[in-house]
Amino acid sequence: MVPETVSVELLDAGGRQLDAEDVAFSGGVATVQAPWSLPRAGAYRVRASAPGGTQTVTVNALPEPAGDLGGVAALASWGVPEGAAEYLRQHGFVVTEVTSEDAAAVLSADPLIVVGDPRLDPQLAAGSDLAAAYAALWSAVDQGARLLVLEPPPPGVRAFWPIQAPLRPATGACDDWAGIPPPAAPSGAYGSWAPAPQLAFDLSSKGALDIYHPDGTYMPRAKGAGYPGCHTLFSVRYGAGWVTLSTVPLLQHFQDVRARLDLMTLIKDSLRRKHRQPASPGLAWVMRQKLAALAKAPPNPMTTAAAVWYLPAPALIAPAAVLAPEVSDGDPQTCWSAPPRAAAGGSLRLDLGAPRQVHALELDFGAASADWPARFQLAASSDGVHWTPLTAPAPAANGALAVAVPSRPAGWRDFQLTVTGASAHPWQVCEFSAR
């Protein structure tokens, strides 16, 4: 090909020339030497003219993203699986994983902190270092960071949280979910993910605290009481920052493309909160006093357990709920109830975070045990992969059950109760703990 000079022009939508340059071209790629400036968002045209002819292409300039959105947003990730963090990095977020050693520096630098596992570092759950980790977290929020928690705090770390809201089955319209509306498509066309969660926060007794929708607007409060309705997401002010808690199991369903999109939407909604509300320094002050006490007297290691209800395979009868952390909080008055005709195959898992010496399991099926004909199995594991069956007697008349656990030098990390037969009646679990 004979080398030639190509005249390249930048034109606005009306055809007015904004810039021009002569470029030597001998095939392949020709590079404009001086960078061109696009004065505003909108359509432009680039026209290349040479003796052999003229070619014009359209260029669309997008507006510069806001400083707290998408491609320029920095967020700290604590307890978020690496796959989810990498996905966010691939979609324009700067994600910094937090470790206990650099917690204070990382958290103070990022406007958004996303927590996937509220136990933070599981290996710290047995000692006072957990109080130090939470102190760094709440200090960052107190100074203005936004905290997005993707899983309700389990029983063992609830003392480290300024607000606790019990869970209940989601009923009626849960209009707080900020995710993408469900598509008009046949059932099952989008995999296992459904935006409608099965658990919600019970805010009916929170009448003394200002609670907000995730966009920062006030949540309507019942006269002389708390907040009625079904709430899968809610926000509170903590110092100069925000805390948003969610029951939507995004990380459990992260393999589904719609759950990934919903996670992106929730993060962006957390970043672009528009409504300014007064700070809450009193809540931060109370939490600092609690953390000082917890640093001196850390909780019992066994109370760091979290019980998680995993969805069974799709069935014609109603599946069990996704999360039920109340059943290991040590309070026999706190029960989780399965719906009538709950599907067989669901399981409650007691996760101790690290292998420990355990001698017995204690379960309490509550008053509903007399009407519960469903069968169940118990198993123990040191790694969450290999399971050893445990022999369990029938529950007592009051629903109590004690199961001896065989000795194991390496200790036990996980215990699992699996429902092997469906029940025609509601049934409940009030306690599932190890000692």
Report on this model:
- The protein has 435 residues and is of the alpha+beta class.
- It folds into three domains: 4-61, no CATH class; 70-180 and 192-296, Rossmann fold (3-Layer(aba) Sandwich); 305-434, Galactose-binding domain-like (Jelly Rolls), CATH 2.60.120.260.
- It is 14% helix and 28% strand.
- It is built from five helices and 22 strands.
- The protein has helices at 82-90, 103-109, 129-142, 257-271, 281-296, and strands at residues 4-12, 17-25, 42-50, 53-61, 74-78, 94-97, 112-115, 146-149, 167-169, 199-201, 233-238, 241-246, 306-310, 336-338, 347-356, 360-364, 376-381, 388-390, 400-404, 412-419, 427-429, 431-434.
- Strands 6-5-7-8-12-11 form a six-stranded mixed sheet, sandwiched between helices. A five-stranded antiparallel sheet has the order 13-15-20-17-18, with no helix packed on it. A four-stranded antiparallel sheet has the order 2-1-3-4, with no helix packed on it.
- α2 packs parallel to α3 (129-142) and α3 (129-142) runs antiparallel to α5.
- The longest helix is centred in the middle third of the chain and has 16 residues, at 281-296.
- The chain is elongated and about 95 Å long.
- The chain starts with a strand and ends with a strand.
- Residues 67-71, 178-191 and 309-328 have low confidence and may be disordered.
